[in-house]
Specification:
With 118 residues, the chain is an all-alpha fold. It contains five helices and no strands.
Length: 118
């Protein structure tokens, strides 16, 4: 955090981070990591993995997709909302995956135009 400031004190911290980044960490060692004075007495509680109790309730794909369609809820509540067919297609795929209790990996392409300063 001090790197942009004209202060030479960041150099030792940078060297420490560089040397620590080369360390190998095992899963067992991770459990013994110091968690600070507030959390040092807390041990992670592990239990069985969560299991669904019921079959998923199927969603109506057309009703869900209508949220993003032109004139839908998003365009009414968010004045800057811009309809994109790819978003609707992605929402339909997510809806189908949730309804069928399946996994889905989605990669969203960046918007054509960056409206926010970085």
């Amino acid at each position: 955090m001090s790197e942009p400031i004209e202060w030479g004190g960041f150099i030792p911290f940078q060297e420490i981070l560089r040397s620590r980044s080369r360390e190998k960490v095992s899963a067992q060692a991770q459990d013994n990591v110091f968690k600070g004075p507030l959390f040092s007495h807390i041990r992670a509680k592990t239990g069985p993995a969560l299991q669904p109790v019921d079959e998923p309730t199927p969603l109506d794909m057309d009703d869900v997709a209508a949220l993003l369609e032109q004139g839908g809820a998003f365009s009414r509540f968010f004045p800057e909302y811009e309809y994109r067919a790819q978003q609707v297609e992605m929402l339909r795929a997510v809806t189908q995956a949730l309804s069928q209790h399946r996994h889905l990996l989605v990669e969203a392409a960046p918007a054509q135009e960056n409206r926010w300063p970085i």
